[in-house]
Amino acid sequence: MSQSEYLWPYENEVGQEETITSDVLVLGGGLSGCFAAIAAARKGQSVTLVEKGATEKSGSAGTGFDHWESACTNPCSKVTPEEIAWAYVREQDGYSNGIAHYIECREGYDRLLDLETFGGKVRDTEGEFAGAEFRDDETKLMFAYDYKNKFTIRVWGSTFKPALVKELKRLGVRILDRTEATGLLVTEDANGKKRGAGAMGMDVHTGKFYVFRAKSTILTMSRPARVWLFDPDLTGLCEFRPMQSIGSGHAMGWRAGVEFTMMEKNVRAEFSAAGRGFPPYGTGNNHNTWYAATMVDARGVEIPYVDRDGRELKSVSERYYPAPGQKFFLKGGVIDNPKYEYRGPETLDFEELTKRGYQLPFYADLSRMPDAERRVIWGMMVGEEGKTKVPIYQNYTERGFDPKVHCLQSYGTGWQSASFLEQERQFFGAPGGIMHDWDLMTNIDGVYAAGDQLYASDCAGFACATGYYAGRKASDHASASDLVEFSQEAVQAEKDRLYAPLYNEGDGMGWKELNMAIAKAMQNYCGGVKCEALLKEGLDLLNSFEREIVPNLTAANPHELMRTHEVLDILTVAQLVLYASLERKSSSEPLSFQRSDYPEMDPAADRKHIVIRRENGEICTRDVSLDFFGDLQMEYEKRNQDYIREVAEYEKN
Hints:
Blueprint: E1 17-27, H1 31-42, E2 47-50, E3 67-68, H2 81-91, H3 98-118, E4 153-154, H4 160-170, E5 174-176, E6 179-188, E7 194-203, E8 209-219, H5 248-256, E9 260-261, E10 267-268, E11 295-296, H6 350-355, E12 362-364, H7 371-384, H8 389-398, E13 408-410, E14 425-426, E15 433-434, E16 447-449, H9 460-479, H10 488-499, H11 511-525, H12 532-549, H13 558-583, E17 608-615, E18 618-625, H14 632-639, H15 641-652
Parallel strand pairs: 1-2, 1-8, 2-5, 8-16
Antiparallel strand pairs: 3-4, 6-7, 7-8, 9-15, 9-17, 10-14, 11-12, 12-13, 17-18
Helix pairs in contact: 1-4, 1-9, 2-3, 3-9, 5-13, 7-8, 11-12, 11-13, 12-13
């Protein structure tokens, strides 16, 4: 290779600064960010959207997804938004986000209709599955999981992000791809009230520094990742979500004084290859995307399904219906409330099944299912789910896998295809995040949040619905507000922080080494069982990383610099988790939280949200009741009459 081929292919703009001003600033170009920008633009606001990757394929849904949960208002649904939203809350034993889930259930189908008008594929218009039990032949909608109540819709999710970007451009939204948001701009009035003034960021190709001024700012970035799990050689397999989705919005919010809750919740890792397992959905199972595949043991003996009451189900069709007297069952996405009390094939409790005489290894055998069920699981669900279209569906097919003939082995000790240790944790299953009010506004005036930034976040429908909702509310705020001034000292400090690794020479540390160190520290000091001494030792260790390692980090180009910034954000999130864990003085099953020094499980006095923020270097907390949001339908309708009228007019016409 010639010397010229090693040169950085982009212009060097390190040190250059540009200010961009708009009414509404959206940080993050995933589903929630795109819909936030669309809502604001529809209201006549000037909008800037900042995305670290390429918006057309960025975020958790960039490569696609296979189902749209909680479409409770679709014409075939037999459940109400109120029923499913409260079911989400109860399923998490109250440690849930009633506001955001109600928005998801009330407005989720509206956003799906939006996507269809933008060019996304929502219906089986070609009749590929005509006559199938899960297809409504009048609307051509196709349903997953619960065939009676029909509130989860199978979709061609790989078509959605390109359609969203097309609509963003049509509306005149300014999109800055390959630009990372790194810090919020916040001002404070004489009474100590904080207000958002915009944000700062950097072009990850050229190194140019940006100041984004705005009247309203919406955080729509990812939930944290790579906090406990990291493999430096297989970085793309460290988490289920994309490599660049690591929780930078949480980190910048924490640094700015945004409130968080449930950050002490971290479940045992189950949905990640992490370099030790198999890619998600690449092994035979009957969970989520593969639901409800026929499972057999090593002899080919079928493992029967049973319903909620222990009654063995004789047909494949019965697997998709509630038991007699059961209103509905929740399935798919984050909510995975088992339909069956017997922990059989649905949850693949290997120990229980082997006790009953079934022999390892187990397999998913789609050949024993009706043709339409087989084709929709393998050809559509696996074909459309994130990270599966090419590495699983395409590659397996090219190498000869035929679901009409072959079984696919279910490896490991569970459906997830990998055995994780108790200390290896994840932000999965309705994790912690930003605390907010009914407008999805944070404790900082003019700063909103949506999607995976919210506590107890969910999947695609949740992201789209809350993103659009936050965009509406942020637009109203922008219409009634002026731009505010901000500290130039804060801007200079951020520039210094961002560029520092470019100028370190010698034997400094790279981003991978620091990420490994953080993950190991969190496994050792904030794993399955916690106590005050361990948590404080962990904080001391992370603080030592900040003092001794961070000043010596090195980066050779803007791409490495971006990766370095990500790991600095991972370090911040890890510290936030430790602080939150210290504040909860009891154990909690719903929060997957166990303290050896406070073993009492879920005492009544501690059934509350512990809300935490950092202010002037001090940790501040307050308690909020789990049901602070009140009557979901009444509180929503009190604040959204304009949107209700808009929907009514649309349906009328």
